[in-house]
Amino acid sequence: MRIHPYDLNHPPPADAGLTRRQFFGRSATGIGAVALASLLQPRGVGAESMGATPGRPHFAPKAKRVIYLFMHGGPSQLDLFDHKPGLRAMHGTELPDSVRGTQRLTGMTSGQKNFPVTSSIFNFSRHGRSGAWVSDLLPHTAKIVDELCIIRSLHTEAINHDPAVTLMQTGHQQPGRPSFGAWASYGLGSENKDLPAFVVLLSRGSAARPADPLYARLWGSGFLPSNHQGVSFRSSGDPVLYLSNPPGLDAASRRDQLDTIAALNGVQRERQIDPEIETRIAQYEMAYRMQTSVPGLTDLRNETEATFAAYGPQAKVPGTFAANCLLARRLAERDVRFIQLYHRGWDQHYNLPSDLRLQSEDIDQPCAALIGDLKQRGLLDDTLVIWGGEFGRTTYSQGKLEAANYGRDHHGRCFTMWLAGGGVKPGMTHGETDDFSYNVAKDPVHVHDLNATLLHLLGIDHTRLTFKFLGRNYRLTDVEGQVVKAILV
Q1: How many other CB atoms are there within 10 angstroms of residue 53's CB atom?
Q2: What is the C-alpha separation between 181 and 183, in angstroms, rounded?
Q3: Which of 54, 193, 408, 469 has a 20 to 30 Å separation from 333 between CA atoms?
Q4: Angle between helices 20-27 and 251-272 (to 10 degrees)
Q5: Gyration radius of the chain over CA positions
Q6: Helix, strand or coil for residue 259?
Q7: 185, 43 in Cβ contact below 8 A?
C-alpha cells in the first residue's frame, strides 16, 4: 500500500509561514499559471517567449539537429587545414613585430626572448573537386572535403582554455550562461519524448596530456530551466547514473515511488507556484522513460561489421571518440536535438609532431565515417555537423625549436573549423589568413558570428532567442553576431 505524504487531501493550513517567493507566487497566480502551462508543453518553451508558436522555429530550418565535435585544447590550424608553404623559407627566423603587433600573449610564452617562425612538419595536398588543402594527418577527412565547408577565419578574444571554451559554448567568457545545447533545447524542445534533447559524450585523446578540466557547466542550463541542461553519458556501467533500479526494486515499485514523489512535488508546486518544481517532476518522468530507451540506444549488436569497420578499430571500445561518433549517429536517428562530443588532448605546447599525429588518428576516420553514414541514411541534409576547438595555435614555436620537434601556444586571432550538412554549402573554403596564419586577412568570423549562423540554420533568429534574467534579456550571442550568409545554401 502506498503511503502518501502527510495527507494530500489535508495540506498544511493556508496561513502557515509563507516565504517571499510563496507570497508573490500566490499574489500572482495568473502569472504562475502561465509559466506552468508553458512548462507543460511537450516541446520547448523558448519559442513562445520569442513571440512564436511554442517549440517551433522562427522560419523554416535547414537543420533539425546538431552534432558538435569539439576538439578540446585547440587544434593547430597550421598543421591541419591552413597550408602556408611560404613559411618553410622563413623557418627558424624571428616573427616580424609587425605581424604580432600588440597581441596579448599567454603566460607560457610572454616571457620568451625569441619567437621563431615554425613551418609545419607535415605535407599538404589538394583534394576533391573543391581542391581544399588538407594535411596528410587527415587522409580520411581529405576524402570527404567536398561535403565540408571549411572556415579558416574564426577568431576570439580569449587566450586561455576555460574562458575560450566557455565563450564558444555559452557566448560569454565568464561562467554562468546557458550552453548552446541548452539554448537549442529551450528554443526548439525535443522531438523524442523518451530521450533528452541535449546529450553529451566525452572521450580522452591518445596524446599523453594532463587532462584539462571539462566542467559540467559547459553543458549546463545556466539561468534557463534546469531540464534544458545536457545529460552526460558515461562510457562504463549505466550510461546515466542510477539508470538501473537497485536490487530488490522492480519496475512497478519504481513507478509507485515516482507517483508518490510527483504527488509530493505537486503539493509543493501548488503552495509555491514555482515553475522549477514542474521541471523537477518532468525530469523524474524523463529518467523513468530513459530506463527503457537508453539501453536500446547503446546496444550496438544490430550494427553491421561493415559499419564498425568504417568508424575504425576503436568503434567497439566504449568511451572512445570512434564509439561516440557511432553513438552520435544513433542519437541523430532518434531525433535528439543537440549531441555534443568533447575529445580531449589537443593542447600541444610541446611534442606537437608526435602528439598531433595521435590525436588526428583518434578522430580522422570516425569523423569521415560519421559524415558518410549520415549521408547514406538520408540524415546529413538536416543534421548540422560542426568540428573545431576553442582557438588555434601560434605560428611561432613555444620554447626551443628543434629540427623535428616543436610546440605551439594558444592562438585566438585566427583558427579553423569545418561544418557539414544542415544547410551549409559543401565543398567550399571561407575566409583567409595572412601569410603567417597569424591574423585574419579576409572574411573574419567571430565566435558570435558562428553561433548566430548555427542558430539560423536551426531556424532561429539569434536576436530573438532571449531569456529575461535579473532584469535583462540575455541571448547566446550576447549583443553581437552576424549570420555568415556566404556559407549558406
Answers
A1: 12
A2: 5
A3: 54
A4: 80
A5: 24
A6: helix
A7: no
Grid cell in block for residue 245: 533500479
d(CA 417, CA 386): 7
Summarize pLDDT for 384-403 with one digit per residue, the tens. 999 999 999 999 999 999 99
Is there a domain that residue 288 lies in? no
User: Is 258 part of any domain?
Assistant: no
Residue 122: other Cβ atoms inside 10 A: 19
Place of cell 510527483: 262
Give exposure, 67-93, as e/b (b: 16+ Cβ within 10 Å).
bbbbbbbbbbbbbbbbbbeebeebeee
* C-alpha distances out from residue 395 to 378, 406, 436, 459, Å: 40, 11, 6, 38
Q: Mean of the per-residue pLDDT values for the chain? A: 87
What is the domain range of residue 133?
Answer: 61-249+306-487
pTM for the whole structure = 0.85
To which residue does cell 567536398 refer? 146
With contact defined as beta carbons under 8 Å apart, do 256 and 2 qualify? yes
The answer, yes or no, to whether residue 35 has pLDDT greater than 50, is no
Question: Cβ(352)–Cβ(391) under 8 Å?
Answer: no
CB atoms within 10 A of CB 405: 15
CA dihedral (384, 390, 391, 397) positive or negative: negative
- The SS3 of residue 393 is strand
**Alpha-carbon torsion (162, 164, 166, 168), positive or negative:** negative
Which amino acid appears at position 98 of this protein?
Answer: S
Beta bridge partners of 420: 148, 385
Of the pLDDT bands very low, low, confident and very high (cuts 50, 70, 90), residue 251 is confident
Work out the pLDDT band at 18, boundaries 50, 70, 90. Answer: low
Q: What is the domain-level CATH number for residue 228?
A: 3.40.720
Per the CB < 8 A criterion, the answer to whether 437 and 444 are in contact is no
C-alpha of 284 from chain center = 24
- With respect to residue 40, please indicate whether it lies within any of the assigned structural domains: no
Residue-wise pLDDT for 272-310, tens only, equals 777 777 767 666 666 767 777 788 898 899 999 999 999
Q: How far apart are CA 486 and CA 38, in angstroms?
A: 37
Q: Which long-range contacts (CB under 8 A, 24 or more apart) does 7-14 make?
A: 8/263, 8/267, 11/267, 11/270, 11/271, 12/271
Confidence of residue 32 (pLDDT cuts 50, 70, 90): very low
Q: Name the domain count of the chain.
A: 1
CA 28, CA 21: separation in Å to the nearest integer? 11
Report the range of poorest mean pLDDT among 14-18, 236-240, 379-383.
14-18
In a domain, 50, yes or no: no
Q: For residue 200, what is its C-alpha cell? A: 553529451
